[in-house]
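REQUEST FORM: STRUCTURE PREDICTION
Request ID: SP-0412
Submitted by: Lab K.M.
Chain count: 1
Length (residues): 412
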Amino acid sequence: MGVIVGTPHSANADQAPVSLGDAAPFGVLAGTAVTNTNLTAITGDLGVSPGISVTGFPPGTVSGAVHAGDATASGAKADLVAAYNDIAGRTPVVTIPTELGGTTRTPGVYNSADGTFGISGTLTLDADDDPDAVFIFNASTLSAANVSNINLVNGAQEDNVFWRVSGSATLGTFSTFRGNVLALTSVTVGPGATLNGRAFALNNTVTLQGASDPPKTRISVPNDPPTTTTLTTSANPSQQGQPVTFTAVVSPVTGSLVPQGEVVFKDGSTVIGSGWHDNSGPATFTTSSLAAGQRSITAVYLGGDTPDGEAIVHFAPSKSPELIQTVRTSLWDNTAVPAAQSYPDPKASTAGVIFGNEALLHNAIHEQPAPRARERRGRRKRRIQIRRHGLLPNRRLSSQQLLGGCRVHPCE
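STATUS: Completed
RESULT:
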């Protein structure tokens, strides 16, 4: 496997989603045992396979089901092993320093320079306005210091963060950790720690340590309310340089609470603007700088905290379907298909331009006899045809007539 030594903001190729399969509903899944002391809470299922040992519940609580050595746990364990092996084979890899605290990482696959990863302070994971962005960290050991924190920004989601550890992982007291920990040996979650994600120990034990007093140690399977984002445009097609307003509406999949937060507008992968969405109105962005051609426009809701009475609801990010904005360089549309196919006209045409005799032109258009011709030959009618390319009479005009003469002769 090739290794790239990168800077803190090294770019990686986009990673496909990592599937946890039947392991996804589990907040805790271990190979031999799950143990607990004091006040802890698991939001999600708890499982052990092939072992059957589960101790310390209560005082620990589990919101979901407990599967100790049953078929459900076995199926989840098989999918967990598949996910672990999938992550292990991901490329390209960027090798970075051991300490992650105080740094910002963009989506990609990261290895530790000395095989271990530690977090002191705050690690920021920046999804670059892509809710599907995947973060993978590979190490032999993982240690999150007491009161350390992981901050997710610009659309990053816990479900898309993976920590593959070939040894053991430890989350310190009152640490706030985000993502899925897949440790080959063991996982220990310290007193008062919060894990927004999952704790998986493939071969051995997951140990939860609570305190005798609140706050509880918590492990919560990500469950942000999902959203949908729709995108409309004020004019399509539009002319280059013409102002175009894009409007994004973010809706909850269930319920009526209007999601609040930033929406970014993208032309392809490039962010071209942003707007704010809340219950006062949708997010909008107006631009007159779109390049000519077929522009692939999307709106991305980055997720956000939304007040709901005294509670706060954190909505999940979402991305609109692609909108193709046609931007033309002129008012004319050279892509239109004519209603009838063109064909050569075998008949000769004579085009005349009349100077100084508006009356003759007016009469020709309205198929009326010229005034002086009517006086001299009142009983005879004159017919002048107007055809596709201008004034085309059914007789030849003399140079005198073309230059403003007033005599009209029959063409018989």
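NOTES: The first helix runs from residue 71 to 88.
Reviewed by: T.R.
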